[in-house]
Design goal:
alpha+beta, two-stranded antiparallel ribbon
């Protein structure tokens, strides 16, 4: 399994939106093979070039492809958050950047389930 991720923030990127051509983070998006991930990255780049946007922000330069295990072990960044229920902010929690909000103790949806 392979991911396309943004190099600066290490967010896992989803597919290209067909209406406005924007690629948004989507932690669920993965590809079975490396050629499938490369094809998706090429489609993102072609859509970006079709809109005649700056070549500096071309997805080929901004995004990378990595195997899932290697990505989680070596590349993915983490952040420090505090639980909503911890009013004194004494116990910081370290979580991955791609943690969905409903799985994060720092969000209200985690505590409402």
């Amino acid at each position: 399994m392979f991911y396309i991720y943004e190099k600066s923030s290490t967010y896992i990127m989803g597919k290209v939106n067909k209406y406005d051509g924007v690629v948004r983070p989507d932690h669920r998006q993965s590809y079975k093979t490396m050629p499938a991930a490369k094809a998706a990255l090429t489609r993102m780049s072609k859509r970006h070039r079709a809109d005649l946007l700056e070549s500096v922000n071309d997805p080929v330069y901004r995004y990378g492809i990595a195997e899932a295990e290697y990505f989680h072990r070596s590349i993915e960044k983490s952040r420090t958050v505090y639980s909503i229920m911890d009013t004194a902010k004494e116990n910081p929690i370290t979580e991955r950047v791609n943690t969905p909000s409903y799985c994060s103790p720092s969000s209200e949806s985690f505590w409402c389930m």
